[in-house]
Amino acid sequence: MLFSTATGYALRALAALPEDGTFSLAKDLASRLELPGPYLAKILQGLVQADILESVRGPKGGFRLTRPSHRITVGEVVAALEGPEAMEGCIMGFPTCGGDHPCPLHDAWGAVKAQVSTSMTEATIRDLQLMDLRHQKEALGRSLKRS
Questions:
Q1: How far apart are CA 69 and CA 18, in angstroms?
Q2: How many Å apart are CA 69 and CA 67, to the nearest integer?
Q3: Are residues 105 and 94 in contact, defined by beta-carbon separation less than 8 angstroms?
Q4: What pLDDT is stored for residue 125 in this prediction?
Q5: Strand ranges in the chain using DSSP code E only, listed in sequence order
Q6: Distance between CA atoms of 108 and 34, rounded to whole angstroms?
Q7: Average confidence (pLDDT) over 69-90
Q8: How many CB atoms lie within 10 A of CB 22?
């Protein structure tokens, strides 16, 4: 896995948030997504600090997106949770790897990093929501065919 479990959970939770701006409780998201509640709540708080989510305490509170899902990129979420240098450095861990002293995977990893970086800056939370809707429809179609 290229990124942490926390990043995967965050992307799933962000895609599950309602687009209408209503608040969702972390425990409800965790239950619906079958994720560990306290861990998800901690991840969501990190996204509040990164200004991706807004949170309000109380029975009508919870978490919601700070802006429309089509304006939040996957790259933003990755940078918030993994750090801005998540894709930097040598894939083999050599501290001196670079243009002057490339490791055996330097050029190949550079091409992969460029493609991943482009994909993450183009993909938005809305794209993830649309993909999730397609998967749900396909799953429903498969279950209806079995009936």
A1: 9
A2: 6
A3: no
A4: 96
A5: 53-56, 62-65
A6: 36
A7: 89
A8: 10
Phi/psi of residue 9, each to 5°?
-60, -40
How many angstroms separate the CA atoms of 29 and 63, rounded? 10
What domains are there in the chain, each with its CATH number?
5-146 (1.10.10.10)
Q: Which residues contact 6 (CB under 8 A, 6 or more apart)?
A: 39, 43, 46, 81
Q: What is the pLDDT of residue 47?
A: 97
- Cα angle 80, 70, 138 (rounded to 5 degrees) comes to 105
For 18-31, the DSSP string reads -TT---B-HHHHHH
Q: What is the mean pLDDT of residues 121-130?
A: 93
- pTM here? 0.82
41-78 tens-digit pLDDT: 999 999 999 999 999 998 788 999 999 999 999 999 99
Q: Token pair for residue 59?
A: 């029975």
